[in-house]
Design a protein that fits this description.
The protein is α/β, with parallel strands linked by helices. It folds into two domains: 177 residues, Medium-chain alcohol dehydrogenases, catalytic domain (Quinone Oxidoreductase, Chain A, domain 1); 95 residues, Rossmann fold (3-Layer(aba) Sandwich), CATH 3.40.50.720. The chain contains six helices and 17 strands. The strands form four sheets. Strands 1, 2, 5, 7, 8, 11 and 12 form a seven-stranded mixed β-sheet that branches. A five-stranded parallel β-sheet has the order 15-14-13-16-17, sandwiched between helices. Strands 4-3-6 form a three-stranded antiparallel β-sheet, with no helix packed on it. The N and C termini lie far apart (53 Å).
């Protein structure tokens, strides 16, 4: 195998980092691993697990660093010590290198993205209602089972989605966060000219704003001082109608959407919501909050 580069796309802050794969690696894989609660992240070699009969071998091409990954790296997201060392990463796009013998849906060379929920109990109320992503006993790629920040990964066929239609395969890393936003917004009952307040101007916040534009609603963003550059850009280019850094507490929005997972931001949203307002929480936070 010749030297190759795997790119890990860092979305916040906007930059891109890469590391070089060693020549000749076949049964081992370079991984971004969290070893313990004190360690940020290490780049190490790990033995590649054997393929099961229903799995395909995927070469990871690009990975998107989610806010959850950053919290894992910084020790701000709870993690089971029994799962360490853990390869992180759940937003990725890859190419199939080897398929299981009985597969008819995929072939070598197909570009794919993976579902972050690998397995759920299928017995709880969430699973029976189709919300396997809310199952308390689910296996989560890069959270409680080894994830996609690696050269190769073996994944079951039901966890893969073919994306050969992409003109630029790198854009595949955006499909998972886009699906999160789309599924959330689709639960709302928005009408044209509704006033919507979005908390957060990170990747999920901006994706939320872009998707809301199709609904014809008035969009205001609640952000931080450090967000002013992106907020000004969004306003100047008419993606949003306005933004605020500090809330006055007098507004009444028809819908409020949190994209931060921050306790203060959520409480601010609730204080700014109108009677019978719709509330959507897209941000993640596994610690207790006072709402």
């Amino acid at each position: 195998m010749t030297n190759e580069i795997i790119g890990f796309i860092i979305r916040i802050p906007q930059c891109e980092i890469t590391f070089r794969i060693k020549e000749g690696l076949e049964i081992k894989s370079i991984c971004a691993v969290k070893k313990n609660s004190e360690t940020d992240i290490d780049i190490v070699e790990k033995q590649l697990k054997e393929m099961n009969t229903n799995e395909h071998k995927v070469k990871v091409l690009y990975g998107g660093v989610c806010g959850t990954d950053m919290k894992l790296i910084e020790g701000k997201y709870p993690i089971d010590d029994n799962k360490l060392p853990l390869t992180i990463g759940h937003e990725f796009v890859g190419r199939i290198e080897q398929v299981s013998n009985d597969s008819e849906a995929f072939q070598v060379g197909d570009y794919i993205v993976g579902k972050p929920t690998l397995k759920s109990c299928m017995e709880c109320e969430n699973c029976k209602s189709g919300y396997i992503n809310l199952c308390k006993d689910r296996e989560r790629l890069g959270i409680n089972v080894d994830g996609a920040f690696t050269e190769y990964i073996n994944l079951s066929e039901k966890s893969l989605i073919k994306v050969n239609f992409l003109k630029d395969v790198k854009n595949g890393v955006w499909l998972e966060p886009i699906s999160v936003v789309a599924r959330g917004i689709n639960t709302l009952k928005l009408k044209p000219n509704y006033s919507v307040l979005v908390a957060g101007a990170g990747a999920i916040g901006v994706l939320t704003i872009l998707m809301l534009k199709d609904y014809g609603v008035d969009i205001t963003v609640l952000g931080l001082e450090s967000d002013c550059t992106i907020l000004e850009y969004l306003k100047e280019n008419q993606f949003i109608d306005g933004y605020m850094i500090k809330s006055s507490g007098s507004e009444n929005y028809n819908a409020v959407i949190d994209c931060t997972g921050n306790e203060n931001a959520i409480n601010n949203l609730l204080n700014l919501s109108a009677n019978r307002a719709q509330v959507l929480l897209l941000g993640t936070n596994k610690f207790n909050m006072n709402i």
